[in-house]
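ESCALATION

Customer reports they have been waiting on this structure for their group meeting. Please prioritize. Original submission:
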Amino acid sequence: MFVNLLPYWPYLLTAAVAAYLFGSISTAILVTRAVANKDIRDVGSGNAGMTNVLRTLGSRPAVWTTLGDVGKSVVAAWLGGVLLAWGWSNMLTRCGEPPVLSDEQARMAGQYIAGLFCTLGHTFPVFFGFRGGKGVLVGLGMLIVTDWRVALAVVVVFITVVALSRMVSLGSLCGAATAIPATWLFRWLVDGESTGTIVFAVVMVTAVVAILFIMHHGNIQRIAGGCERKLSFGKKEG
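Update from on-call: job pushed to the front of the queue and completed.
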């Protein structure tokens, strides 16, 4: 699968650059500037993400941040798939015979590549000094496009862990970790896809999850130390 993508490098490069720029549009920063004329990175936890917006500005700005972060990733991943599928069609027309990859494999590769680079753009946004968010909602947006079943499993785990622990960070990490085995199980046991396709999908998801864990290194230390901030759910936060 990886070797078979080499002929598509112009389309992959275009998808990656476009997705990175999409990701660099930080919804949390833009919403906070519009609502409070502040930089979200200077208030609260300092993270340009939905949870910090929720705690510092309230639910409505948090909803807009959520829609923006998920939405930009969905659009980026979808466009990446369309671009690679168009590349497949273009190569078919030019060469007179089907390329090594199928149309669906090319589309899937574009979606995952774009999702990965959108996550990188979100965490290291070129428009905002390379100081962005942690990529949880952007990663979810990629999963919605690449495999809605995995996205659903991630959301269920996230909600369950947050309800039990009251820690958004722990729920995010557990949900993200769920994406790796879920991707493998659905594509292998349910879809019966080729080994190359399964490996590619799992590697791409693992790369996104790795970014999320790296960006949550401070949260991981606080969770281990028992001092991670919790949601109130109507009670005083602890």
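Sent to customer with the following note: The radius of gyration is 19 Å.
Escalation resolved.
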